[in-house]
Specification:
Layout (H helix, E strand, L loop, with lengths): L2 H15 L2 H21 L7 E7 L4 H12 L3 E6 L3 H10 L4 E5 L3 H6 L7 E4 L4 H27 L23 H32 L1 H6 L5 H31 L7 H25 L3 H17 L12 H6 L4 H15 L7 H26 L1
Parallel strand pairs: 1-2, 1-3
Antiparallel strand pairs: 3-4
Helix pairs in contact: 1-9, 2-7, 2-9, 7-9, 7-10, 7-11, 7-13, 9-10, 10-11, 10-13, 10-14, 13-14
Length: 373
């Protein structure tokens, strides 16, 4: 490594260290994002506020209510006296679900007849409604089997039929944090490297110091590399920081090879740094660079499988997602951290990043050097 390149790297490191606000943002934002998304961005639905209208008021109806209360999916907060009061609670959003047990429920069960129970669900949030719908049926079926066992005096399972025994791999407790934290790592790497690479070069242009560098004997590639190398170091520090917090705070297991994860992260960083350079070549102000950065990053978040499964998207959006580097990085992160896989199962993602990374970085470097000229 020649002295000119070392001088540019040293200059950029000093510039980072002398800007305490930017330095704080680089190291604190990943922690804030991780904590907020780790706790808030969850699909684990528990303790839904629920209202009950028990028009039967028998031992059987109370047993059904207790079954729903014990399921941990429903927190029975209100006991109402009529259906109108329940409708008002649902309208105001005070509850997400309502159980209506009609009069005669206990009599029907005592006579061996089928008894119907109405279960109202607020469908304004489909994710919550889907979980509540499945949980309501599951609890109801379990209670129905229990009643049949008491009536027949035998174990229903001994009567034959099909028994499904599901086993969940990689995330047996189905914790959202274990799924989200690796994805947050990829998003943080993308966010920091793209945004700060774009902003630091545009800041040089605004202050007029970029012209001073151009007229020196420094070659354009040395300027490009010298500018991005310190942010690679910052990105790896943030990655280690997020990994540590994920393990200590959210109990996310790291089952795979961490050195392999770091090597593959470098491929991904070529794409994010390339986007930063490309934005810096186009933008003329820091505000413009920030807007362009978000314009580049937001599609990557929504089309990468970060929030929504790719399989649920229309075919044309799935096709567009193939040019989103974060799509491949999320598979790598979740594969290494959660599944503990090695390189062979990830070869498709590695090849895609090995193609996209150098191409984006080289194209951005050429465009950046042209803008300097």
């Amino acid at each position: 490594m020649n002295s000119r390149l070392l001088s540019i790297i040293r200059k950029e490191i000093l510039h980072i260290l002398r800007d305490p606000r930017s330095l704080a943002i680089m190291f604190i934002i990943p922690i804030v994002q991780l904590i907020l998304l780790g706790y808030a961005a969850t699909t684990d639905i528990r303790r839904l506020n629920t209202a009950v209208y028990d028009a039967d008021r028998t031992m059987q109806s109370r047993q059904l209510i207790e079954a729903y209360r014990a399921s941990d999916y429903f927190a029975i907060r209100y006991n109402v006296g009529n259906e109108t009061a329940m409708a008002e609670l649902l309208d105001r959003g005070d509850v997400r679900a309502g159980i209506i047990i009609p009069a005669g429920y206990g009599d029907h069960l005592a006579k061996g007849k089928a008894a119907q129970v109405a279960f109202l669900i607020d469908g304004s949030d489909p994710a919550v409604a889907s979980t509540a719908f499945a949980a309501s049926q599951s609890v109801g079926q379990a209670q129905s089997i229990k009643i049949l066992q008491q009536r027949l005096g035998v174990d229903v399972a001994q009567l034959g039929g099909i028994e499904i025994r599901p086993r969940v791999w990689y995330n047996p407790e189905l914790k959202s944090a274990s799924y989200m934290i690796p994805a947050v790592m990829g998003m943080i790497l993308q966010f920091l490297t793209t945004l700060f690479t774009a902003l630091t070069i545009v800041r040089e242009r605004e202050q007029g110091t970029i012209e001073q560098l151009v007229v020196t004997p420094i070659k354009s590639w040395e300027l490009v590399v010298g500018k991005v190398v310190p942010y690679i170091g910052v990105a790896f520090f943030d990655l280690a920081e997020v990994l540590l917090i994920g393990v200590l705070l959210f109990d996310v297991p790291i089952r795979g090879n961490v050195p392999l994860l770091l090597v593959l992260s470098l491929l991904f960083l070529l794409t994010t740094l390339g986007f930063g350079l490309l934005i810096s070549a186009v933008a003329r102000t820091q505000q413009e660079a920030m807007f362009l950065s978000f314009l580049v990053m937001l599609p990557g978040i929504f089309l990468s499988g970060f929030f929504f499964p790719l399989e649920a998207m229309p075919w044309w959006l799935q096709a567009v997602s193939h040019i989103i580097p974060l799509r491949y990085m999320l598979v790598i992160l979740r594969g290494i951290i959660l599944k503990g896989v090695g390189l062979p199962p990830l070869m498709d993602q590695v090849i895609a990043l090995a193609i996209l990374g150098p191409l984006i970085f080289m194209a951005a470097s050429l465009r950046f050097r042209k803008s300097l000229e």
